[in-house]
């Protein structure tokens, strides 16, 4: 027994870290509300399967319009976010820039959209802004890190002082990071297409808008056509999201769907007034304010508790799923058409937004935490699994020959485990943010309370709850960073 | 002659790789002066502290030196022309620099072509630096140092990747174009031939510091034992 759990006494054991995370997830699982509440999930699944095989577009005009909106939202959003993120990245050594970037990305685009819809109505401006703000925060972080990781010898070779100007940046730093930054921008474009589809679910005129209607009314043939459209859009990115074409496509996007919103200064003033906490705005008596605070506190408490609970389960399951499925895209296990098939499977899974998966599982399994757990595990697990598998190609093949299972346990997992944990920690803040957001669909995480606050036009409450979800995200980010530094000094 | 820099009772350290650990001692200097017009060779086995001393001198003489580090430190993604031009970023306004990155001006093209000619890299100006051989990269780094147009040259093994004859010719040019030079070399005969003062480092100390005319072959032999 003492040898079996000897790792518990070590200070920097990755096994111990994993053990505690898994233990916590099991405890959370015991507390979570998991249930299949629909009468016949099999039947619904069968209907969906049939729809998947018989895709049908009922109205091509409508379809085309939705495709154009999806593409213009994401293209405009990514290009503007790349510009802002790049500016931030240049000054990423300044603390306030890091803080602003962290705040921008700590709020999910769905929450940003709910806010901007109040200000600008259901409009292109609201949609584009909802993508630009969180994306610029994320891109600032990644661009900033890419610029920090470059070889500093060229810069030092031509410059003998610590501070360096714009010219030095463009000559000795940017060219070294540009390739990585380009690749990352292309990946963000994929994310932006997903986001713009999700924004459709809350009312913007993208593919998601029609997808929601089709799914809710059980028209699975129409839904599957939209789903395949989404996959095709993401798959086609590699052919048209190129620097040369973007000089034409970006102006075209702004020309075809100009960014505009319904701006009424009176409405905006009213919105701002409504954002002031009710007790201050309406000058309530102490006792009434106290009750309001208690009521708000209950929402924050319950919402945050459920968010953390769910995210913890999802984090561990995501890791497990990623570790197992990464073998489908790894040269250590598969090659040829099997590898392409496995990679394709992960890419398709990755392309489906967690919001959409959750929505589908909700129809099949009924309301509980289960649909959210499955949706996020599949989506996030496929992202990490794909990356990890690709990374494993860089590792030299195992010296000792053995069967796939032993190879997995004795070679694959040990050599890749640090990298794997680094990916999981990176993903943690995203999982927390997504968990909070998925409350919009009915599980009692923070998003549930945020959504109902918007529904009752309690903007003060909504903003406070959004701030609470941002704090949770920032906490996860900071814990992950500390764990990374302690356990994975190389990453 | 004017004294450019004077070090006394100096302990030069080398930054440690692991965080939190103390830096280790690379060189201890009791007294060292550099005067304008001198051509100084730094000799010694690798690890004797030559690079550390050069880095320290660069810091002391900030803004006055052309710098040619041991590793070329080029930007592999940029053209040779732009790598050489980056030696002079401080001389021009940011606007000129950025314009030159996209549309190189005629004036700078001729300037740099003239500089590259004697180094034998004139026909490589529009290749990417990352595609060059080690010797070619070293010559680009030399051109970049020359284009800094500073009176003082600090160079760390600037011709190590070139053959003997080519190396000597290029070293001569370097010395001619700077009023004062301090060059770390591993080739002792070359140093004695071209420089007027030799500073020899061994076991993290200055073993001797003599005019070239007073250096005895025994001194050199002891240095590399």
TrEMBL record, chain A:
The keyword Transmembrane helix applies. It comes from the Bacteria. Keywords: Cell membrane, Membrane, Transmembrane, Transmembrane helix, Transport. The keyword Membrane applies. The chain crosses the membrane at residues 66-90, 110-133, 223-241, 309-334, 355-388, 456-476. Its main location: membrane. It is found in: Cell membrane. PROSITE patterns: ABC_TM1 (PS50928). Residues 67-239 form the ABC transmembrane type-1 domain. It holds the Pfam family BPD_transp_1. It is a multi-pass membrane protein. Belongs to the binding-protein-dependent transport system permease family. This is ABC transporter permease.
From TrEMBL, chain B:
This is Phosphonate ABC transporter ATP-binding protein. Keywords: ATP-binding, Nucleotide-binding. InterPro entries: AAA+_ATPase (IPR003593), ABC_transporter-like_ATP-bd (IPR003439), ABC_transporter-like_CS (IPR017871), ABC_transpr_LolD-like (IPR015854), P-loop_NTPase (IPR027417). PROSITE patterns: ABC_TRANSPORTER_1, ABC_TRANSPORTER_2. It comes from the Bacteria. Residues 5-223 form the ABC transporter domain. One of its GO terms (molecular function) is ATP binding. PANTHER family: ABC TRANSPORTER ABCH.1, IMPORT ATP-BINDING PROTEIN.
